[in-house]
Structures are given as C-alpha cells and as structure tokens.
C-alpha cells in the first residue's frame, strides 16, 4: 500500500487515553451536552500509540502535539506525567498541551506542575461559551472576559506557555481582545473556529469573526474539526472552508491537525489529510512545507 504523502508533516492535534487505568469522565459515564458530532459512544475505548499507528499507517506524521483529553479535573498534571511515560516508551507524542482551570485558586500550582515536564508547551482550558450565536453575551463568569480567568491566563507567560483555545466563532471577539491584551502569549485557535453553520450567511459570519481575530499577530489556527454530524466528510464541503481559513490567517499561521481519534467519528485519517492536501495544492513548496510541518514546529517549539 503506497503512502499518500511523501514529505514530513506534523499532526498538531491528537489525543491518547487509557480508560482501564485513568479517569476521563466524559468517556466513562458522563455525557457531553451538544457534542458537535452527536453520538460519540464509539470513542469509549482505549486509544493508545498502537491505535494511532494503525490509523496513520499510510500517512505517519513525523511529530505530534498531544492536546489534553479531559482527564478528570482534580489532577490535570497527572495526565501530563502519564504522557511523558507514553512518549518515552513509544516516541509519541512529541510535545504536550495540558489542562489548567485558569479561574481556580490553585492555577499557579497546576501550571508549575505542568512546567516540570520537558515536553510541555502550553495549556488548553475551554472558557465558558454558549451553544447558540444568539445567546452570546460578553462578560460571563468563566469566559475570556472574566477578570479571574484572565489572571490565570496572565500566568502562562511566566512559563513560556502558549494557549490552545476551543470556542465557537461567535466568541472570537473575546479571543481577539484577549490576544491583544496579552501580546506575548501565543494563542492557537482549535478546530478552524468551529464553522458548524454551513449556510452562506453562517459562513460569512464565521469569516468575519475569523478576520477580526486574525488581525492579532500572536494568533494561529489549526485546521481540524470540520466534520458535520450525519454527513460524510467530503472535499466538496471542506476544501473551501480550509482555503478560507488559510486566506484569512495567511499560510504562515495555519497548521494541519487531525483531532484523532475524535474525528474518526466522521472520517478516516487518510480522508482528512487528503482533503488538507487538496486545499493547499495552490501553494508553492515553501508555503506548503510551512502548512504541513514548519509552522507547527515553530509555534509549538518542537525543534
């Protein structure tokens, strides 16, 4: 079986979990409300380096970024310690983004615990958001506007940590203000800003929100999470969205990311990577290399 890509690339967003040994409430009894792909029961199984190797057999990445997988919040540093063991044994992940609840009193202690791990690069904390655009309000407790949450965010710079943001596009005005107010902290938008509404009006509103965020130079975006519930992942649906995101942020600030195994609910790894390759076929070798490899290496400090 031939490879679908014969040049090195980085997967900037992947997950491992071992449900036999470790606590992941969302996979072990709890249910995520409004999960964007609907039924996710197929994820309630172990997903470890061997599983990832199987899924990427035709397209193994050179390096990967492990994003926190919602380990039980009582001890998020334990997830990072476990991932250090996994990396030593299997060579993956290359670097890690951990979790810290930025508005908790112990956030400084948690960040220091993460920082003790040499592969640690940043934090993901999902701020308070709403599921519908019409319900979006500024200033909510636990949101990117919250003063206490921002005090925790300010501590990232002390450790040289980046911030991975997962939020619907109707909250990106908050993200733009956050990036502007903390210009020395790299902010990395997850899952292409979640353009779930594919109507023309919905996509235009997403593009407008992304354009506002892109004005802040310390923001990058990961191209991932583009599946739609109950619908096959197709290039017809997703290549235009990928190209819009790259046009808005520029090819120097975008990265390929699989979101595996979560996006296995909507597509094979090969399908997602092939769609990204189709979207970037109009770029020259240098920009293509950046989109596939060099941007992630730079932004996540992997060299």
Automatic annotation (TrEMBL):
<dbReference type="GO" id="GO:0016787">
    <property type="term" value="F:hydrolase activity"/>
</dbReference>
<keyword id="KW-0378">Hydrolase</keyword>
<protein>
    <submittedName>
        <fullName>Putative TIM-barrel fold metal-dependent hydrolase</fullName>
    </submittedName>
</protein>
<dbReference type="InterPro" id="IPR052350">
    <property type="entry name" value="Metallo-dep_Lactonases"/>
</dbReference>
<dbReference type="InterPro" id="IPR032466">
    <property type="entry name" value="Metal_Hydrolase"/>
</dbReference>
<feature type="domain" description="Amidohydrolase-related">
    <location>
        <begin position="10"/>
        <end position="301"/>
    </location>
</feature>
<comment type="similarity">
    <text>Belongs to the metallo-dependent hydrolases superfamily.</text>
</comment>
<dbReference type="InterPro" id="IPR006680">
    <property type="entry name" value="Amidohydro-rel"/>
</dbReference>
<dbReference type="Pfam" id="PF04909">
    <property type="entry name" value="Amidohydro_2"/>
</dbReference>
